[in-house]
């Protein structure tokens, strides 16, 4: 990568980490923490410690993350965790700054959980897209996963979050606190998925038609999408068939259905969910810098 491109990528990384950290810090300060919502992880632990002692949430997050980050550097390497260290420090500092300059929301707790979840998801997605994390349970889960590959990271994080949520419910002496935390976590996860993968999701269409060449030509002309034709045969008739494969965005499937109806009403069509589509006409393959 050229020096100019590296500098540009560094500026993008820096801007994204600052923006994502600020949004995440806002969600904690203004919505989740003041409403006794501890949505798992180091953030959740720091929230109920603040409730018990009055100790600043951001400072406590940084204190708790230091040994976790050191463990991560030892097990995973400093290069892997560089952006995580930056985002962890930024979030901790910004939460304590916001505590001085910004108001908090203490109205309807369901709204607090929902808006807290939305902002959390939005902030985390920005950080994740540039290769960072918020430290804490992400690092613990990755270290455990390296040592014990049969434990998935998702399951480890879920277990840790569950323990923190239950502990917070006892600290706040409120089962509602745990329920609101679950709402916040679920909302955040949906926002993260939609931002990180929503735009790249699509459909893999499989069409078995008696007029595959004409249909393929029309797809390439009308939808400007690439088409792959593979050879197949019917198990019952042993008749040779040409099967059309085509990757589309979701909003293009209706147009394809219209083309199929116009060209071959007897065509057999299967639509498969594509969690991510990379390549020409879609999102480009990520380079090593943003992977």
Overview of this protein structure:
This protein is of the alpha+beta class and 291 residues long. The protein has 2 domains: 3-198, no CATH class; 202-274, 2-Layer Sandwich (Alpha-Beta Plaits). It contains 10 helices and 4 strands. It has helices at residues 3-32, 41-53, 57-76, 78-101, 109-129, 137-147, 153-172, 175-197, 212-223, 253-263; strands at residues 202-208, 228-233, 240-249, 268-274. A 4-stranded antiparallel β-sheet has the order 2-3-1-4, with no helix packed on it. It is elongated, with a radius of gyration of 24 Å.
Question: Secondary structure elements and their pairing?
Answer:
Elements: H1 3-32, H2 41-53, H3 57-76, H4 78-101, H5 109-129, H6 137-147, H7 153-172, H8 175-197, E1 202-208, H9 212-223, E2 228-233, E3 240-249, H10 253-263, E4 268-274
Antiparallel strand pairs: 1-3, 1-4, 2-3
- Percentage of β-strand residues: 5-15%
Q: Radius of gyration in whole Å, from Cα?
A: 24 Å
Largest sheet: spatial strand order: 2-3-1-4
> If you average the pLDDT, what whole number results?
85
Based on CA inertia axes, which overall geometry fits?
elongated
